[in-house]
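I'm stuck. Protein, please.
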Amino acid sequence: MSETVNVPSSNNQQGNKPAQENSTGSVIQKPEPGQCGFYVQRKKRFCRMVVKPGAQYCGEHTPLPATEHELGSKPISELRVPCPYDPKHTCFATRMDKHLKICNSKPPSTLPQYIVPGINSGSMRPADLKLKQEKLTIANVSDEKLINIIGQLMSTYKRFVEGNILVERLEHAVMEDELNKHQYGTSTLKHLIQNSSLLGQLEKSGLIENGNTFIEFGSGRGQLTYWLTRAVSDPSTCQFILVDKASHRHKFDNRLRDCEDIEMVRLRADIQDLSLAGLSPFLTEQRESVVGISKHLCGAATDLTIRCLTQTLEECPSEMIGMLIALCCHHRCDWSPYVGKEFLTEQGFTEEDFTLLTSITSWCTCGSGKPREQKQKEQKSPSVEHAAELDDQSEDFNPNFKDRYTRLQLDQATREEIGRQCKRVLDFGRLKYLQDVSVMDVKMKYYVDPAVSLENALIVCTRPLTSG
């Protein structure tokens, strides 16, 4: 017979809820004997950590004392507190000194040469000033301001962007067999189709050449770089550098462990702190031809990457000969690193308007107004590539907003089109910046069908003589 359990409310656990029912209303089974009773909402299951005899929760999920009485009633040997290095996890108070010596979040005592804190962050402001300013979003903007900004946005799109984006859906021969495998599901195929088109764009632009140094920013599991090693005729002449601030499981570069002639380096670094001039010996000992690539580089990370490639190579012999960035998650853009400030201000947009524009971009991918669970039921095999955007931008799910949209004559299709135009205007600011700071040929393209990914735009930079 099934039983249900309650989940503790913990100050250091975000996004979890009591486990009597899940989002579909079905009863959640009691965890296995000896395992943690904490329900992990993100994974739709209980934590599988083993607990001490008589305990209900593992050390990580034992709720922190919420009151002074609870704090005083616990033996000091059982008291867990947030880690000073990373409050997302806890440790025993009595073992704090030992934990701080071995914590994975402990900052390094000495930074490598390629790490320069904040080098790509753009114009920064004091943190306290940023906290005092309330961001203007769809949720708090007035009707009049919203209509005015939409009109200004559509005028800018028509003047600069409309008709200037190429539709070019390519394929690369190296992925033909992989795309024809019938065992892959819809989501896997979507990623393969995108990678194939990105490789096709690189080849057409003359960037897949022997001897180049390829740097994948926000590399994740490194799937794009893996296929790139297959696309280059002689990968042993190239360098492949993968940059990501997180450590991922099931990395594709593990498949190349036996290929001793392929030089591949993985850097765990935040792009905002990455200085390519300090990346020794890969870019400093001789003149290297650098190609920056990325697939779905979220929000501000795109601007950080553009700054990194255009500003941090000046003090070393290497040079950037090309760049290809597939764009996404504009709602996560930030004014400080955004490289298109000059273009937007020339069109009359302010920093406050920018935060509203980033909010409006969510209409492009969330325009249906349906919760993610309902979309997944209807689509059967959905791509969850940008599911976080649905969680972050939930205004459309509110009945009050639906009434507002009806009043302002902003139906679903209209909002989706406005959101799409907003994304492209923000991207055009990036394109304009690249044209101003380099002599390269810069283009914006749609590289896959919207049915494959709603985030289907890219920016590609090439040397003028090899431009496609």
